[in-house]
Design brief:
It comes from Streptomyces lonarensis. Keywords: Signal. About 30% of the residues lie in helices and about 30% in strands. The protein contains 4 helices and 13 strands.
Length: about 220
Amino acid sequence: MGKNTAGIRGRRSQYGAARQRMLAVAGVAGTALLMGGLTACTDEGDKPQRDTGSSESAASDDADDDKADTDDEAKDDTDDAEQADADGGAGGTFAIGETAVYDNIGLKVTISDPEVLEPQEEWDEFGGEGYTAYTFTVVLENTGDESYDGDMTVFQGRAGDDGVEAPQVFSFEQLGNGSMGSVLPGKKSTSKIAFDVPDDADSLTVEFTELSDWDSESAFWTHEF
């Protein structure tokens, strides 16, 4: 009994550490946004741009799959990309699976299609009544000349047309400790993020904010359920 209680406390302390990291990063984000608001202008290079090469590579890989499925997926991807363009694509809005490029930082960010995240432990605080947790795979690619601190990033979720908050999910067993880690030049870092989404929401928008350059604008990916 005592051993089990100690184990639960140990795991909760891990979740607490992850939450503390997010609160600390959020504090830095608030300062960054405040300082960014005092900036007179934003350079065009601070806006995330779409990596057209990533879509072409994905289409090439899909060609090995069943042709009918590939055609349907390609059409869906094209529709999503066109919608992203209509919403301002090159200015920060992307379709799920597309890559946002920050030339000013030397960083590429890709967010994949989500998967349902099921609670597995008694202390998992997500996926309760009226909510479903979804996990996304995030890839950070360092295209610069120096090591990049992946923890200088913030992800937030907004659900539905009203943009209600979709709380970020923490699960050490299924998602790790929440750290993106350092990314060496020319290398990638792959991690998972998750959000608890109201079941009546028909979409989820994931916002990515980069903190090492205060002038950088956020990037947005929207998934339709």
